[in-house]
């Protein structure tokens, strides 16, 4: 009788174990989707073009990834807090214009002189400008309770408008500077290499490591995840919710300004329309990397993988001669698919 009972019970137990293994495998594939997608992209374009899978091309593509990988890291912090920042693209463009404006010389009419700042001063002032844009966003959202979508949409237009006013719709060219004026070296970010690695890629790596440390090893990171997961509970627990909210928007503005410096340095020019739609690319990188748009879930590693997925896909389409319009279509499809997979991953767990 005992043997018969065990025999009858065995199939359900075996079926349950198989179901658990299948569930674990599906969860593993879902959580590692960005890495898997990157491998598929590299393999596909390597077969389609002999020029894709080369060290030189990977370094070139990585330098392109750095331009929207930096604002993506800033966007990650904002999304972890349960917000959104639509102003990063305009902040990037304004940062390039501000840098170009200062590189052209600041005309002090009252003194009758033109002031040429050293490149390090130009870079610092540009980052300060990005921080100020983020501060405006943070104050509007945290203190005046303006919805993040509305506040950052407004600053997006304001920043873009200021960039157009400064340049009168034109582009600043030849930002390499002059030795006689002491402002050379602006193109160092875009063209120089350290250990054969583009400086822009190294900047992205340093920012990613710093952000990863901030999220995993500091009280700020714990507060950020807590406030993003449940702001009310975090506030009752003593977390400085408003301060965290303002801080993430300031950091997002700095990251966007840094990307503006890298982009204008690579082009040695700065235009008021630079960075258009980059806010969507940054959001896409964060979502592809597995972060939840509701806040409280995500990490830097996933966001970097998402940025590389978008960058390697875009450059691969260029290499095989696909139209730029189709690149936009593919990017949009990737965003929709990423959101769908995020819904499958987080939808049943609640916020």
Kindly summarize this structure in a few lines.
The chain is an all-alpha fold and 351 residues long. The protein has 14 helices and 4 strands.
End-to-end distance: 49 Å
Unreliable segments of 5+ consecutive residues = none
Q: Would you report the number of β strands?
A: 4
Q: What proportion strand?
A: under 5%
Number of helices: 14
Structural class: mainly alpha
Helix content class? over 70%
Features:
351 residues; mainly alpha; two-stranded antiparallel sheet; two-stranded antiparallel ribbon; 72% helix; globular
Strands, helices and their partners?
Blueprint: H1 2-31, H2 33-48, H3 55-80, H4 88-104, E1 106-108, E2 113-115, H5 119-142, H6 148-167, H7 188-191, E3 193-194, E4 197-198, H8 199-217, H9 219-229, H10 231-236, H11 241-267, H12 278-288, H13 300-319, H14 324-346
Antiparallel strand pairs: 1-2, 3-4
Helix pairs in contact: 2-13, 3-8, 3-11, 3-12, 3-13, 4-5, 4-6, 4-11, 4-12, 5-6, 5-11, 8-9, 12-13, 12-14, 13-14
Task: Explain what you see.
The chain has helices spanning 2-31, 33-48, 55-80, 88-104, 119-142, 148-167, 188-191, 199-217, 219-229, 231-236, 241-267, 278-288, 300-319, 324-346, and strands at residues 106-108, 113-115, 193-194, 197-198. The chain has 351 residues and is mainly α. The strands form 2 sheets. It has a two-stranded antiparallel ribbon with strand order 1-2. Strands 3-4 form a two-stranded antiparallel sheet. Helix 3 packs antiparallel against helix 11, helix 3 packs across helix 12 and helix 4 crosses helix 12.
């Amino acid at each position: 009788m005992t043997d018969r009972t065990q025999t009858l019970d065995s199939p359900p137990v075996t079926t349950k174990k198989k179901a658990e293994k299948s569930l674990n495998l599906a969860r593993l594939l879902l959580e590692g989707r960005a890495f898997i997608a990157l491998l598929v992209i590299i393999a596909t374009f390597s077969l389609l073009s002999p020029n894709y899978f080369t060290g030189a091309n990977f370094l070139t593509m990585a330098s392109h990834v750095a331009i929207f990988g930096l604002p993506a890291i800033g966007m990650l912090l904002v999304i972890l807090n349960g917000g959104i920042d639509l102003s990063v693209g305009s902040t990037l463009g304004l940062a390039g214009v501000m840098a170009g404006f200062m590189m052209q010389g600041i005309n002090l009419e009252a003194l009758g002189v033109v002031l040429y700042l050293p490149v390090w001063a130009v870079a610092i002032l540009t980052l300060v400008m990005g921080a100020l844009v983020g501060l405006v966003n943070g104050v509007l959202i945290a203190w005046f309770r303006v919805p993040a979508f509305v506040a950052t949409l407004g600053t997006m237009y304001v920043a873009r408008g200021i960039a157009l006013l400064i340049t009168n719709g034109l582009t600043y060219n030849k930002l390499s500077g002059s030795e006689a004026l002491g402002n050379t070296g602006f193109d160092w970010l875009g063209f120089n290499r350290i250990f054969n690695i583009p400086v822009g890629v190294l900047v992205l790596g340093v920012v990613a490591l710093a952000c990863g440390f901030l999220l995993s090893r500091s009280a700020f990171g714990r507060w950020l995840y807590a406030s993003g997961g449940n702001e009310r509970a975090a506030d009752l627990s003593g977390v400085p919710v408003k301060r965290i909210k303002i801080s993430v928007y300031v950091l997002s503005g700095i990251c966007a300004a840094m990307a503006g410096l890298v982009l204008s340095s690579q082009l040695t020019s700065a235009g008021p329309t630079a960075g258009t739609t980059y806010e969507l690319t940054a959001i896409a990188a964060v979502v592809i990397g597995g972060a939840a748009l509701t806040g409280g879930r995500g990490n830097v590693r996933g966001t970097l993988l998402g940025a590389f997925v978008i960058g390697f896909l875009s450059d691969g389409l260029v290499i095989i001669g696909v139209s730029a319009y189709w690149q936009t279509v593919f990017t949009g499809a990737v965003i929709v698919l990423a959101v769908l997979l995020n819904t499958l991953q987080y939808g049943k767990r609640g916020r």
